[in-house]
Amino acid sequence: MKLKRPRNDQQSETIIALIDVVFFLLVFFMLIGRMDATAPFDVAPPIAQTGADMPAGGATVAVSQTGMLALDGNEMTREALETALAQMLEADNGLRVRINAHREAELRHVLPLVGWAEGIGVRDVVLVVTPAPEP
Predict the structure, then answer these.
(1) Alpha-carbon distance 38 to 79, whole Å?
(2) How many domains does the chain divide into?
(3) How far apart are CA 81 and CA 64, in angstroms?
(4) Angle at 17 between CA 14 and CA 18, to 5 degrees
(5) Is residue 89 part of a domain?
(6) pTM of the model as a whole
(7) Residue 46 in domain
(8) I need a surface site. Which of 6, 19, 69, 98 has the fewest CB within 10 A?
């Protein structure tokens, strides 16, 4: 009786080694790469001043949670507010505007005021904030 030995064919290279290499390359590039967008120039964010006294003088614009506006305690429309602030700026070239917005007011109500005030020549725009409670 003649027994046949199983043929010992060489198995082709497995793809597992290649998968390992690709995985290590992926991990390597994830570790050395930056995931956030960076500016092409140096950016230094402003420093908040908490605990300092509010600057005196100027006008105070209040913005409600729903976007209603008031100038120095008098409720008015945006057009009336812009007209009144422009007149105040003509009388006082160094006008300071404080914007006191409700904490849940949407930015779409606040940011256009800042841009508009800067556009007409207001030098100082102060955003009123409440400091976080200390733990």
Answers:
(1) 38
(2) 1
(3) 14
(4) 95
(5) yes
(6) 0.59
(7) no
(8) 6
Least-confidence region, from 42-46, 85-89, 110-114: 42-46
Write out pLDDT tens, residues 47-100. 666 666 666 778 888 998 888 899 888 898 888 988 888 888 888 777 888 888
| Beta strand 59-63 pairing with 96-101 | parallel
- 84 three-class SS: helix
Side chain identity at 1, as an amino acid letter?
Answer: M
Q: Which amino acid is at 130?
A: T
Among residues of the chain, what percentage have pLDDT more than 90?
1
Q: Which residue has the higher pLDDT, 109 or 44?
A: 109
DSSP of 5-53: PPP-PPPPPPSHHHHHHHHHHHHHHHHHS--S---SS---PPPP--SSP
Within 10 A of 27 (CB to CB), how many other CB atoms are there? 10
CATH number at residue 113: 3.30.420.270
The pLDDT value recorded for residue 48 is 66
β-pairing verdict for 74-76 and 69-71 = antiparallel
d(CA 128, CA 99): 6
